[in-house]
């Protein structure tokens, strides 16, 4: 067990850096917890906070559509600046952005293929009610235009208003509490992805870098210990380090959350974290094989996790990021870990399509880990032959 004991002796040398990352994580989590506490009362009203951009202010039809939607929306004016609108959606000042394009009412009246523009927080609690209201209003108006071709715009608005008199009140029973709990875990584990990868690069990466030093490799080649035994002890040390890390993350999140119930969603969050940790371990191992300098490894331990987290949605929700950024991020396991967490937070039916998606995201992470480990073994073997 010489290698195994040496592993944890080396781990003590990077303990200060790991403690610094732990403190950073605690600070981030308490910021998230405070934000969660402030947002608990944000969804008291049935109406959804909506940013309205109306480029068709003179249209009777558009005005009446907005008046009808006011039963479902609490309209707010943020102008038409894209940056202001994106910030409002990102900071949850609104959950929905509705844009009525130029000449929408006139084009709709004359049968052109037009539509309002909608942006919303994905799978928001009330989004479907607003979408349904818009579709209901426009489909009703189209039926009148199709069956009464000579109807005036004023008559169209009048007939549609009569049909819209009956309203359905939308209520959500006992869901808000559940959503808040899963929303916390969602952000908690997304943030943890940054710390897990950083800790693996600093802890596991530095240890493996030491063992892959050319001088140590040459010494190990002439020792009585077989290469297989040495690798098994290193694998055991790495797994203990990662699993200990995961257990601490799971316990800390469970302790600071108000709800102490262990649900199927929480178990899936834990499982997804373990799978991601294996991927983080594979990246750390690969970096230790490729990089020969500890200073370079330190730089990568800061830069790589931060870059992966920003483009993959760990810090910024994925629906805010552009398609090109997400395509780039899809080549990292962090993206699929975050995507899995986002899906777990929405899971209510454990026999449905969502569950199969979650397992698929986990399998993709396992695929990343297997591919990176395989590549690491090839590179490591070539280095040994060259040395």
TrEMBL record:
Source superkingdom: Bacteria
Protein location: Membrane
Gene3D superfamilies: abc type-2 transporter like domain
Membrane-traversing stretches: 12-32, 192-211, 232-255, 267-287, 299-321, 358-379
Signal peptide: none
Organism listed in the record: Anaerocolumna sedimenticola
InterPro entries referenced in this protein's UniProt entry, alphabetically: ABC-2_transporter, ABC2_TM
One Gene Ontology term of the molecular function aspect: ABC-type transporter activity
Name the record gives this protein: ABC transporter permease
Membrane topology, from the record: Multi-pass membrane protein
This protein's GO CC annotations: membrane
Keywords tagged on the record: Membrane, Transmembrane, Transmembrane helix
Lineage: Bacteria, Bacillati, Bacillota, Clostridia, Lachnospirales
Pfam family, one: ABC2_membrane_3
Domain ABC-2 type transporter transmembrane: 19-376
């Amino acid at each position: 067990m010489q290698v195994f004991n040496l592993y944890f002796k080396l781990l003590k040398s990077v303990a200060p850096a790991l403690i610094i990352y732990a403190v950073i994580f605690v600070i981030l989590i308490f910021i998230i917890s405070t934000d969660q506490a402030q947002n608990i009362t944000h969804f008291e009203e049935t109406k959804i906070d909506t940013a309205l951009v109306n480029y068709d202010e003179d249209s009777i039809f558009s005005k009446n559509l907005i008046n009808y939607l006011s039963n479902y929306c609490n309209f707010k004016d943020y102008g038409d600046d894209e940056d202001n609108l994106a910030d409002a959606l990102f900071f949850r000042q609104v959950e929905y952005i509705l844009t009525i394009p130029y000449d929408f009412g006139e084009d709709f009246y004359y049968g052109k293929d037009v539509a309002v523009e909608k942006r919303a927080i994905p799978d928001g609690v009330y989004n479907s009610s607003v979408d349904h209201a818009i579709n209901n209003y426009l489909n009703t108006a189209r039926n009148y235009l199709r069956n009464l071709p000579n109807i005036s715009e004023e008559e169209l608005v009048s007939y549609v208003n009569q049909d819209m008199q009956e309203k359905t009140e939308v209520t959500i029973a006992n869901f808000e509490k559940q959503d808040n709990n899963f929303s916390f875990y969602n952000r908690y584990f997304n943030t943890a992805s940054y710390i897990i990868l950083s800790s693996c690069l600093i802890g596991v990466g530095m240890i493996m870098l030491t063992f892959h030093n050319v001088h140590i490799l040459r010494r190990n080649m002439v020792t009585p210990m077989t290469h297989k035994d040495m690798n098994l002890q290193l694998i055991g040390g790495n797994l203990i380090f990662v699993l200990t890390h995961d257990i601490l993350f799971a316990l800390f999140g469970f302790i600071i959350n108000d709800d102490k119930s262990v649900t199927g969603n929480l178990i899936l969050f834990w499982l997804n974290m373990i799978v991601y940790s294996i991927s983080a371990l594979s990246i750390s191992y690969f970096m230790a094989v490729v990089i020969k300098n500890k200073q370079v490894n330190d730089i990568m331990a800061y830069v790589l996790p931060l870059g992966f987290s920003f483009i993959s949605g760990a810090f910024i929700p994925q629906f805010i990021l552009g398609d090109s950024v997400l395509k780039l991020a899809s080549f990292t396991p962090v993206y699929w870990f975050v995507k899995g967490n986002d899906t777990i937070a929405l899971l209510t039916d454990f026999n449905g399509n969502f569950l199969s998606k979650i397992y698929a995201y986990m399998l993709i992470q396992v695929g990343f880990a297997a591919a990176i480990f395989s590549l690491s073994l090839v590179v490591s073997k070539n280095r040994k032959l060259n040395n």
